[in-house]
Amino acid sequence: MLATALHYSHTLLKEVLQPGETAVDATMGNGHDTLLLAELVGRTGHVYAFDLQAQALENTAARLSEAGLTQRVTLIQKGHETLAHHLPEALPVKAAVFNLGYLPQSDKSVITLPATTRQALDALLVRLAPRGRIILVCYYGHAGGPEELASVRAYCEGLPQEQYNVLNYQFINQKNQPPILFCIERKPF
């Protein structure tokens, strides 16, 4: 059976992220992806996780504590557009993940925005290691969602093919705007 966009995002991350490497969860939400990244980077790697909402940090911190992985992660209560202020430019990032939309079971008026997502992508691209991947899962069935989806699609389509492979994964016969996945992979130098 075909994987959902969310499950496929995990497959794409597991294929490239190794112990000792650096990863970014640009939208930590309830901490599911942060936990996966923390498991994948092992004891010697590190994860930087971003979210504006205190509830996201609380939920993620509890999930990491329960798994005994708190020391592998830096939780940052800032939007992903501040990524460049928290990660040195010389730090190679092997994997990053975004779940674009809003925090499930919270204030649906607090959403990711096209401008801040582009800013975060710009910051990640200069840090992305060869064969590294940026995964974006776009949930767009809310006000502002279609605009962000269009912005992400245009951003990805504009990346030079000499430097990046870009994958688009989506179900085209399902109702209720199923999420759409984009994967940006940096080619080896």
- Strand segment count: 7
> How many DSSP H or I helices?
6
Helix content: 25-40%
Give a short account of the largest sheet.
7 strands, mixed
Average predicted local confidence, pLDDT: 95
Topology as H/E string?
A: HEHEHEHEHEHEE
> Which overall shape is indicated by the principal axes computed on the Cα atoms?
globular
Beta-strand share of residues? 15-25%
End-to-end distance, in Å?
35 Å
- Assembly category: single chain
Q: Low-confidence parts, pLDDT < 50 over ≥5 residues?
A: none
What structural category arises from helix and sheet content? alpha/beta
- Rounded Rg: 15 Å
Question: Biggest sheet: strands side by side, in what order?
Answer: 3-2-1-4-5-7-6
Can you walk me through this structure?
It contains six helices and seven strands. It is an alpha/beta fold and 189 residues long. It has a seven-stranded mixed β-sheet, with helices on both faces. The protein is globular.
Q: In short, what is this structure?
A:
The protein has 189 residues and is of the alpha/beta class. The protein is built from 6 helices and 7 strands.
